[in-house]
Structure formats: structure tokens, C-alpha cells
Amino acid sequence: MVTPHTTLCPSATAQEGALLLGVVGPDKSVRFLPEPEPMTTQLTESVTAIDNPEQHFRFANKCAKSGCNQWQSGRCGVIDLVMSVNQHLEAPVSLPPCAIRAQCRWHKQSGPTACTVCLFIITDSSKTSEERLEYIDANF
User: Fold this and answer.
1) 126 in any annotated domain
2) Which domain of life is it from (predicted)?
């Protein structure tokens, strides 16, 4: 169960109990909702009727830590990988609005600079870590 003290993964899968954070726009950036929408049974059924819903929406859920395939050396490998290919970025002067920042794994782990790249991260659980690395190497 997600509580105000739960550390949240901002790149979770579409499932009941998660939070709908935003919608992926035509430019492939995430348009965040002003407030997260709890994934009820009805909303989960609607969203998961779409192929690869994580490519169309952004979800948050309890950070699974070592129960997640992306957890590496006591850290979230997703934000570490994205930050490693964006080392030139600096923390923004002002942070974009975010309803989960106080609970966000990425923000806790990488600080405000994580907020700079967050809206460009699209969850794709259909690919292996190697496929994601190949994509990043080819495109960044």
C-alpha cells in the first residue's frame, strides 16, 4: 500500500494500487497530472486494455528495491543509467511541478538533476537491459 512515507518508483508498471502520474505526449515527453490518480480496478482495466500502457502513461508505485530487475548495487539503475549519459546536465534553477517529489526514488537518489530528465523517461518493460543499453548507445 502506498502511504505518504512510501518511497515511490516513478517508472512503475500499470497495475491496481499504482498511481497514474501522467500521459506521454506526441513529442514523447510526459505531461504530468496536477495530482496522481490512484489506479482503481476500473482505471487499471481501461489502461491495461492498451498494448504496452507504460509507453503511453507514466505510473508510480512502491519502490521494490531488490525485488526490481533495475535495482543494482543498492540503487535504482534506471536513473543511474539516464544520469550517466546526461552528465552534462546541471540542477535546474527551479524545479518543474511534481506531486511525488518528496517520495520519489529518483529525486532521493540523484537530487534535483533527476527532475531535469524525468519527463523524458518512458517505461518500456518489454525490453531487456541489454536492449535498452543498445538503444541508449545508438541514440544519445
Assistant:
1) yes
2) Bacteria
Domain hosting 55: range is 8-139
> How many residues would you count in the chain?
140
Among 84, 64, 88, 83, smallest CA distance to 11 is for 64
DSSP secondary structure, 40-98, as one string: -HHHHHHHHTSSSGGGTEEEEEE--GGGSTTEETTEEHHHHHHHHTTTT----SSPPP-
| 3 domain residue, yes or no | no
Q: How far apart are CA 56 and CA 20, in angstroms?
A: 11
Number of domains in the chain: 1
pLDDT digits (tens), the chain, 140 positions: 788 889 999 999 999 999 999 999 999 899 999 999 999 999 999 999 999 999 999 999 999 999 999 999 999 999 999 999 888 888 778 988 999 999 999 999 999 999 999 999 988 756 565 665 666 666 55
Asked if residue 38 is part of any domain, the answer here is yes
The grid coordinates listed for 3 are 502511504
Task: Assess if residue 2 is contained within a domain.
Answer: no
Cα diameter, the chain:
42
